[in-house]
Design goal:
Blueprint (H helix, E strand, L loop, with lengths): L1 H7 L5 H14 L6 H8 L9
Length: 50
């Protein structure tokens, strides 16, 4: 939603997009544990193989 709001003001540079996304993540309650969840996603099997 933040990106949509900022986009209405005019075109965004890649740096503006990243800044908006990072600021949004920081303001969420899940923000502090997000890197841990993301890192764990690469390690956890999604299905068991026989």
């Amino acid at each position: 939603m933040d990106l949509e709001t900022r986009r209405r003001e005019g075109p965004l540079s890649p740096a503006d997009v990243m800044t908006t996304l990072i600021d949004g993540i920081r303001s969420e309650k899940i923000g502090p544990i997000l890197p841990q969840l993301w890192g764990e996603a690469g390690c956890s099997p999604t299905s068991s193989r026989s």
